[in-house]
Every structure is written in C-alpha cells, then in structure tokens.
Design a protein that fits this description.
Elements: E1 3-6, E2 10-13, E3 18-22, H1 36-44, E4 55-58
Antiparallel strand pairs: 1-2, 3-4
C-alpha cells in the first residue's frame, strides 16, 4: 500500500485519496460556453514533456 503524506492529517493510505488530474492545467471555468474546437483543444492537445510532473490528488 502506498502511504501519501497529507499536510493536514499526516501519513495516510492511498485509498483515502483520488486522482484529480494534472496540477499545472487550469480548469475550464465554463466548459459549456467553449466551442467544440476549444473544448477538444483543452482535453486533448497538450505538451508531453519529459521530466518532472505534478499531479493533483483529493483527500
């Protein structure tokens, strides 16, 4: 089992967390107002750099 350090609760088991996506991507505030092209771009057209990545996890 993976132990995740929580800054509020201390070390917690991974089952208490869920993956919430990349941390560096700004979420669309009003996705219903985006054109199909902009929505597709937001979902699929991203750089895929080699190296360190940051993830957002929810607890």
């Amino acid at each position: 089992m993976l132990i995740v350090p929580c800054p509020h609760c201390g070390d917690r088991p991974e089952i208490e967390f869920r993956y919430a996506g990349p941390a560096h991507i700004e979420r669309a505030q009003r996705p219903a107002e985006l054109s199909d092209e902009d929505w597709a771009s937001y979902l699929y057209l991203r750089d895929n750099p080699k190296g360190l990545h940051f993830e957002r996890w929810r607890h």
